[in-house]
Amino acid sequence: MVRIKTLKKYGLRWALGLLLTAVAVLQVSGALRIDAIERMDTFFADLRMRLVKPELDPRIVVVDIDEKSIAEVGHFPWNRKIVAQLVTQLTEHYGVASAGFDVVFAEADNTSGYDVLEQLAQREMKDVGGFGARVAGMKEALDYDGLLVKALEDQPVVLGYNVAEDQRKGKLPDPFFNTDTLNGRELPAITYNGYLANLDRLQEAAATGGIFTALPDPDGILRHTALLMRIGDGFYPTLSLATAAVALQARAITPLWETNVAELSARQRANGGLDTLLMFVGQKKAPMRIPVGENLSNLIEFRGVGGPKGGAFPYVSAADVLAGRVRKEVLADRIVLIGTTAPGLLDLRATPVNSAYPGVEVHANMIKSILDGRFKVRPDYADGVEVLQVGVVGVVLALALGVMAPLPSILLAAAMAGAVFGFNYWTYTEMDWVLKMAMTLVLIAAVFVLNVAWGYFFEVRRNRGLVSRFGEYVAPELVAQMAENPEQYNMDGESRELTVMFVDVRGFTTISEGLTPKQLREYINLYLTAMSEDIRSAHQGTLDKYIGDAVMAFWGAPVHFSDHARRGVATSLLMQASARRLNEDFIARGWPELKIGIGLNSGLMHVGDMGSNIRRAYTVMGDAVNLGSRLEGITKVYGVGIAVGEVTRAAAPEFAYRELDLVRVKGKNEPVAIFEPVALVQDVDAATLHELERWHAALAAVRAQRWDEAESLLAELQTLSPQRGLYTLYVERIAYYRAHPPGENWDGVTTFETK
């Protein structure tokens, strides 16, 4: 019987959850394609890459043609004489393991002016004795391409070049292998029929060449790069693979074929039976294995945000290399990539980690993966892992959330989402697996929303009566919040530490006499709306009631806030700012000026539903409430917009205050200190701090009956802030005290006999 009741109660909800799980399984298995999920997977993959913190790898150094280099050496591109000097510095002086140029030298360098001299020698200056011979003797020194050829010869330098369509310019390096090596096999690769390569003699002198063409995804973001591309019948390496091969003194790079067709993985089948390249390094017998994805491409593992401050690779300025200012140990036996981060040279790429990522560092990331033998790959069993993950998560949540209360449901769903993300991140960083998780996260959200919606639409009726009863007592803005967890709230009276606020318009009678009824209604509506929004929205106060033009509010009930005093003070400052803003509009309309007074006090208050059988309200009572009301009334006496009690000041120490007085209000025997909040301490400028210090010194002098000292300080303060009525009040008090000395036992307290 119990099982039947349980099934009747939860069965339909469980069935819907399991149905969502089945749809998710179809999507991750490939039977159902949802483009939005695939876009989300791309987003999460990019996010996951950004979360990995880089570690500096000193094996790969970027020689940066940066703004400093351009300023010292001259505008780029530099002439080949300078490039030759850079090559010589790197290879002979610093002894780098290899140097890859993320630059192509496709055009001859005629910047030396030798062609002009040669033409002069053959024409205008041919009859000048010795001129032709002198020019001929200068040929070697002024042949900048020839200087670069000499610098490249027998050095581990890789020249970069571009692939292109329907264009063949320059000379290609030797391919790593060609179609004859495949023995009739088909090897899918990114294929181009043209190229923009380096001058013949430069490429012949270099160790090899590498392709630096970037191929972004359809959304314009660069995420993958090929290790090999096909041009004609040859398979040519990218700059990263070629530079790493030269540094490692690789003898050859060949494809490794899987001979057992029955054991081919999906990735191998997509690559014609290939998923690994073998690099034969130096004298080692065992070759390095380099996994490759579809079309001989791999995911780029971007480390850091790129650039000199990215934290992944050391950067040195090309100008410092040319001048020999770089320490030798920084470059000796390192793999060096020469490129640029200068914004005007347009070698910046949009990547998952940075929209302006240096192109040269793309190659650095691939070289690091080659050296470490670690590539981010999607394993052949990835689909199975993802199906298992979705199935387990979906079934657990579908069965569990249907019977759980809201808070445990939130915690379980959040924990499950965190576990999925954590597992995905761990497999990415530790196992180098690229797994998808968007469908699993969407499933968690969908099952959670299903159960929340079910609870709302089908179980809200259970709470409707309770909510209705709350609505009789509590202000409407609190009903929705209390209805979410009605068991946590009751309307019984209780004593709590709260902060109460009273707000009133100064001179409202005069204002009402100067406006038509329609204008007055709009005036008061605009004012009350602004004050109410500041109370409720900014710092989550409870709006108690409107009393004509006055507003009453409090903080700390029914929702408990430990920082209720801070919220109250912050709101009072915000309300004064809103009043000033409203005042500008009112004056522009020709309406009377708006000024408000705010009293704020904290203490033990009685809170709950109060009233008669006819009308009740959720409100506060007590001595601390009465004092708050009195403080609002006496703001006009001191010429201030806000007055707070000493308990409020002590509970909100993050604000700077101006002490106003020691007062004994009507109905209380004990005097209390009252203060005017100025602003957050960190927002108070030096001039205001100075004024506060002088004022407190003046107040101390008044209480000590040092009238001359107090008058001198007040005169200074009136010069600083002539509009502040507080200073005028105390000047008048001193004059009164001089005529009517308060006596030696005077306690400095001002007594108010009226409310």
List its salient traits.
20% strand, elongated, CHASE2, 755 residues, 9-stranded mixed β-sheet, 28 strands, Alpha-Beta Plaits, alpha/beta, Nucleotide_cyclase, CHASE2 domain-containing protein, 26 helices, membrane
Task: Give the helix/strand layout.
Blueprint lengths: L1 H28 L5 H17 L8 E5 L2 H7 L6 H14 L4 E4 L12 H9 L8 H7 L1 H4 L1 H9 L4 E8 L3 E2 L7 E2 L12 E2 L1 E3 L3 H6 L2 E4 L12 E3 L1 E4 L2 E4 L1 H9 L2 E8 L8 H5 L3 E8 L6 E4 L5 E3 L15 E3 H6 L4 H4 L3 E5 L8 E2 L7 E2 H14 L9 H20 L4 H25 L7 H36 L2 H9 L9 E12 L2 H6 L3 H22 L3 E6 L2 E6 L8 H25 L7 E16 L4 E6 L1 H16 L3 E4 H6 L3 E10 L7 E9 L5 H18 L3 H14 L4 H15 L9 E3 L4
Helix pairs in contact: 1-15, 1-17, 4-8, 5-6, 10-14, 15-16, 15-17, 16-17, 17-18, 20-21, 24-25, 25-26
